[in-house]
Design brief:
single chain; about 270 residues; alpha/beta
Length: about 270
Protein backbone atom coordinates (compact mmCIF):
# COMPACT_ATOMS: atom_id res chain seq x y z
CA UNK A 1 0.00 0.00 0.00
CA UNK A 2 1.46 3.39 -1.01
CA UNK A 3 1.68 6.56 1.00
CA UNK A 4 -1.09 8.12 -1.06
CA UNK A 5 -3.44 5.42 0.24
CA UNK A 6 -2.08 5.91 3.79
CA UNK A 7 -3.02 9.57 3.68
CA UNK A 8 -6.42 8.77 2.24
CA UNK A 9 -6.94 6.47 5.22
CA UNK A 10 -5.77 9.00 7.80
CA UNK A 11 -8.21 11.61 6.53
CA UNK A 12 -11.10 9.19 7.06
CA UNK A 13 -10.14 7.76 10.47
CA UNK A 14 -8.29 10.63 12.13
CA UNK A 15 -11.21 11.36 14.45
CA UNK A 16 -12.47 7.81 14.85
CA UNK A 17 -11.70 4.86 17.08
CA UNK A 18 -10.43 2.54 14.33
CA UNK A 19 -7.10 4.34 14.03
CA UNK A 20 -6.55 4.49 17.79
CA UNK A 21 -7.35 0.79 18.12
CA UNK A 22 -4.92 -0.13 15.36
CA UNK A 23 -2.17 2.09 16.77
CA UNK A 24 -2.28 0.72 20.30
CA UNK A 25 -2.82 -2.78 18.96
CA UNK A 26 0.36 -2.45 16.93
CA UNK A 27 2.35 -1.28 19.97
CA UNK A 28 1.09 -4.37 21.83
CA UNK A 29 2.10 -6.52 18.88
CA UNK A 30 5.61 -5.08 18.95
CA UNK A 31 6.00 -6.10 22.58
CA UNK A 32 4.75 -9.60 21.82
CA UNK A 33 7.04 -10.12 18.84
CA UNK A 34 10.03 -8.76 20.74
CA UNK A 35 9.67 -11.58 23.29
CA UNK A 36 9.60 -14.97 21.48
CA UNK A 37 7.66 -17.73 23.22
CA UNK A 38 9.58 -20.49 24.96
CA UNK A 39 8.05 -23.04 22.61
CA UNK A 40 9.63 -21.47 19.54
CA UNK A 41 13.29 -20.98 18.91
CA UNK A 42 14.17 -17.33 18.45
CA UNK A 43 15.76 -16.35 15.15
CA UNK A 44 19.52 -16.47 15.53
CA UNK A 45 21.88 -13.85 14.15
CA UNK A 46 23.47 -16.70 12.23
CA UNK A 47 20.32 -16.92 10.12
CA UNK A 48 21.07 -13.58 8.49
CA UNK A 49 23.65 -12.47 5.98
CA UNK A 50 24.34 -9.29 7.94
CA UNK A 51 25.23 -9.41 11.62
CA UNK A 52 24.54 -5.77 12.49
CA UNK A 53 20.93 -4.64 12.96
CA UNK A 54 19.42 -3.06 9.87
CA UNK A 55 18.66 0.60 10.41
CA UNK A 56 15.36 2.38 9.73
CA UNK A 57 16.34 6.07 9.59
CA UNK A 58 13.72 8.66 10.53
CA UNK A 59 14.57 12.36 10.33
CA UNK A 60 12.21 14.90 11.90
CA UNK A 61 12.38 18.47 10.58
CA UNK A 62 10.36 20.47 13.08
CA UNK A 63 9.22 24.09 12.97
CA UNK A 64 10.07 25.87 16.23
CA UNK A 65 9.44 29.41 15.01
CA UNK A 66 7.73 32.01 17.19
CA UNK A 67 4.30 31.28 15.71
CA UNK A 68 4.49 27.70 17.03
CA UNK A 69 4.14 29.12 20.55
CA UNK A 70 0.51 30.03 19.79
CA UNK A 71 -2.57 27.87 20.42
CA UNK A 72 -0.69 25.02 22.08
CA UNK A 73 1.18 23.98 18.94
CA UNK A 74 4.66 23.58 20.43
CA UNK A 75 3.26 21.70 23.44
CA UNK A 76 1.40 19.28 21.16
CA UNK A 77 4.53 18.84 19.01
CA UNK A 78 6.62 18.00 22.08
CA UNK A 79 4.10 15.45 23.33
CA UNK A 80 3.73 13.83 19.90
CA UNK A 81 7.49 13.60 19.41
CA UNK A 82 8.08 12.05 22.83
CA UNK A 83 5.36 9.47 22.19
CA UNK A 84 6.80 8.61 18.77
CA UNK A 85 10.30 8.09 20.19
CA UNK A 86 8.95 5.85 22.93
CA UNK A 87 7.05 3.70 20.42
CA UNK A 88 10.10 3.43 18.18
CA UNK A 89 12.27 2.37 21.12
CA UNK A 90 10.03 -0.63 21.76
CA UNK A 91 10.71 -2.06 18.28
CA UNK A 92 14.52 -2.31 18.50
CA UNK A 93 16.32 -5.63 18.86
CA UNK A 94 19.17 -7.58 17.24
CA UNK A 95 17.43 -7.70 13.86
CA UNK A 96 16.55 -4.09 13.18
CA UNK A 97 16.74 -0.74 14.90
CA UNK A 98 15.00 2.57 14.28
CA UNK A 99 17.33 5.54 14.40
CA UNK A 100 16.08 9.09 14.72
CA UNK A 101 17.52 12.54 14.20
CA UNK A 102 15.72 15.78 15.04
CA UNK A 103 16.51 19.07 13.33
CA UNK A 104 14.55 22.16 14.31
CA UNK A 105 14.18 25.44 12.46
CA UNK A 106 13.29 28.60 14.34
CA UNK A 107 15.71 31.50 14.56
CA UNK A 108 18.23 29.06 13.04
CA UNK A 109 18.52 25.46 11.92
CA UNK A 110 19.66 23.34 14.87
CA UNK A 111 20.36 19.65 15.17
CA UNK A 112 18.87 18.50 18.47
CA UNK A 113 20.69 15.20 18.11
CA UNK A 114 22.25 13.26 15.19
CA UNK A 115 20.99 9.92 13.89
CA UNK A 116 20.91 7.79 17.04
CA UNK A 117 18.90 4.79 18.20
CA UNK A 118 15.37 5.44 19.41
CA UNK A 119 16.41 4.24 22.87
CA UNK A 120 19.10 6.93 23.00
CA UNK A 121 16.72 9.51 21.56
CA UNK A 122 14.18 8.90 24.32
CA UNK A 123 16.84 9.76 26.90
CA UNK A 124 18.15 12.83 25.06
CA UNK A 125 14.90 14.46 23.97
CA UNK A 126 13.77 17.50 25.94
CA UNK A 127 10.90 19.85 25.21
CA UNK A 128 11.46 22.23 22.33
CA UNK A 129 10.99 25.99 22.64
CA UNK A 130 9.40 28.22 19.99
CA UNK A 131 11.12 31.44 18.99
CA UNK A 132 12.52 33.31 16.00
CA UNK A 133 11.88 32.97 12.29
CA UNK A 134 11.30 29.97 10.04
CA UNK A 135 14.62 28.81 8.58
CA UNK A 136 13.25 25.75 6.81
CA UNK A 137 15.70 25.93 3.92
CA UNK A 138 18.66 25.81 6.28
CA UNK A 139 17.20 22.74 8.02
CA UNK A 140 16.75 20.93 4.70
CA UNK A 141 20.32 21.76 3.68
CA UNK A 142 21.68 20.50 6.99
CA UNK A 143 19.77 17.22 6.82
CA UNK A 144 20.78 16.59 3.22
CA UNK A 145 24.50 17.36 3.56
CA UNK A 146 25.19 16.05 7.06
CA UNK A 147 22.94 13.00 7.23
CA UNK A 148 21.31 11.75 4.05
CA UNK A 149 24.15 12.21 1.55
CA UNK A 150 26.73 10.71 3.91
CA UNK A 151 27.13 7.00 3.25
CA UNK A 152 28.93 6.55 6.56
CA UNK A 153 25.78 7.77 8.36
CA UNK A 154 23.08 6.05 6.26
CA UNK A 155 24.40 3.00 4.45
CA UNK A 156 23.07 1.43 1.27
CA UNK A 157 21.72 -1.59 3.19
CA UNK A 158 19.59 0.53 5.52
CA UNK A 159 15.89 0.94 4.99
CA UNK A 160 14.71 3.83 2.86
CA UNK A 161 14.82 6.90 5.16
CA UNK A 162 11.59 8.63 6.13
CA UNK A 163 11.74 12.42 6.36
CA UNK A 164 8.97 14.18 8.28
CA UNK A 165 8.58 17.93 7.81
CA UNK A 166 6.23 19.82 10.15
CA UNK A 167 5.53 23.55 9.82
CA UNK A 168 2.77 26.08 10.43
CA UNK A 169 3.60 28.72 7.82
CA UNK A 170 5.92 30.18 5.22
CA UNK A 171 9.70 29.76 5.44
CA UNK A 172 11.66 32.94 6.02
CA UNK A 173 14.92 32.05 4.30
CA UNK A 174 16.08 31.04 0.82
CA UNK A 175 13.91 27.93 0.82
CA UNK A 176 13.22 27.49 -2.90
CA UNK A 177 16.70 26.33 -3.84
CA UNK A 178 16.89 24.10 -0.77
CA UNK A 179 13.51 22.43 -1.37
CA UNK A 180 14.33 21.84 -5.04
CA UNK A 181 17.73 20.31 -4.26
CA UNK A 182 16.29 18.11 -1.52
CA UNK A 183 13.42 16.73 -3.60
CA UNK A 184 15.08 16.38 -7.00
CA UNK A 185 18.73 15.45 -6.57
CA UNK A 186 20.95 12.99 -4.74
CA UNK A 187 19.96 10.47 -2.11
CA UNK A 188 17.41 12.79 -0.49
CA UNK A 189 15.23 12.59 -3.60
CA UNK A 190 14.86 8.82 -2.99
CA UNK A 191 13.67 9.18 0.61
CA UNK A 192 10.07 8.83 1.75
CA UNK A 193 9.04 12.44 2.33
CA UNK A 194 5.94 13.36 4.33
CA UNK A 195 4.77 16.75 5.57
CA UNK A 196 2.23 18.26 7.92
CA UNK A 197 1.01 21.84 7.67
CA UNK A 198 -0.56 23.04 10.90
CA UNK A 199 -3.40 25.38 9.99
CA UNK A 200 -2.22 25.24 6.37
CA UNK A 201 -4.96 24.74 3.79
CA UNK A 202 -4.58 23.27 0.34
CA UNK A 203 -4.26 25.94 -2.32
CA UNK A 204 -2.29 28.31 -0.11
CA UNK A 205 1.36 29.21 -0.66
CA UNK A 206 2.56 27.42 2.52
CA UNK A 207 0.82 24.24 1.32
CA UNK A 208 2.59 24.57 -2.04
CA UNK A 209 5.94 24.72 -0.26
CA UNK A 210 5.22 21.47 1.57
CA UNK A 211 3.92 19.88 -1.63
CA UNK A 212 7.14 20.78 -3.43
CA UNK A 213 9.06 19.11 -0.63
CA UNK A 214 7.07 15.84 -0.80
CA UNK A 215 6.59 15.92 -4.56
CA UNK A 216 2.90 15.11 -4.22
CA UNK A 217 -0.11 16.89 -2.69
CA UNK A 218 -1.37 13.59 -1.27
CA UNK A 219 1.73 13.34 0.94
CA UNK A 220 0.93 16.62 2.68
CA UNK A 221 -1.43 16.37 5.66
CA UNK A 222 -3.27 19.58 6.46
CA UNK A 223 -4.03 19.73 10.18
CA UNK A 224 -6.63 22.22 11.32
CA UNK A 225 -5.06 22.80 14.71
CA UNK A 226 -2.59 21.55 17.32
CA UNK A 227 -4.84 18.66 18.34
CA UNK A 228 -4.17 16.87 15.06
CA UNK A 229 -0.37 16.88 15.47
CA UNK A 230 -0.45 13.86 17.76
CA UNK A 231 -2.80 11.94 15.46
CA UNK A 232 -0.51 12.60 12.49
CA UNK A 233 2.56 11.48 14.43
CA UNK A 234 0.79 8.33 15.58
CA UNK A 235 -0.08 7.47 12.02
CA UNK A 236 3.50 8.01 10.83
CA UNK A 237 4.72 5.92 13.76
CA UNK A 238 2.36 3.11 12.86
CA UNK A 239 3.38 2.98 9.19
CA UNK A 240 7.07 3.05 10.12
CA UNK A 241 7.11 0.27 12.69
CA UNK A 242 4.91 -2.05 10.63
CA UNK A 243 8.00 -3.07 8.67
CA UNK A 244 9.79 -3.89 11.90
CA UNK A 245 6.88 -5.97 13.17
CA UNK A 246 6.71 -7.91 9.91
CA UNK A 247 10.44 -8.62 9.97
CA UNK A 248 10.47 -9.80 13.60
CA UNK A 249 7.34 -11.92 13.26
CA UNK A 250 8.57 -13.81 10.22
CA UNK A 251 10.26 -17.14 10.85
CA UNK A 252 10.90 -17.71 7.14
CA UNK A 253 14.33 -16.72 5.90
CA UNK A 254 13.16 -16.23 2.31
CA UNK A 255 10.34 -13.94 3.44
CA UNK A 256 12.77 -11.83 5.45
CA UNK A 257 15.10 -11.65 2.45
CA UNK A 258 12.17 -10.46 0.31
CA UNK A 259 11.33 -7.68 2.79
CA UNK A 260 14.95 -6.52 2.83
CA UNK A 261 15.28 -6.49 -0.95
CA UNK A 262 11.96 -4.69 -1.38
CA UNK A 263 12.94 -1.80 0.86
CA UNK A 264 16.58 -1.38 -0.21
CA UNK A 265 17.61 2.18 -0.94
CA UNK A 266 19.91 1.94 -3.96
CA UNK A 267 22.54 4.67 -4.13
Amino acid sequence: MGYAKYFEDIQSVINGNSFEDEYFGLIKEVKTVSSPSKDKKAISADDFKFKEPRCMPVILLLDTSKSMANNGKIQALNEATAEMLSAFAQTSDNDSVIKVSIITFGKEARQVFPLITANEAVKKFTNLDAHGGTFMGAALDFAKLNLIERKDVITSRDYRPTIILVSDGMPGDNWKQSVNAFSSSGRSSKCNRLAMGIGVEKGTTPFTVLSQFTGNDSLVFSGKDAKEIKSFFRYVTMTTIKKTVQTKASQNRDEIKEIIEEDDLVF
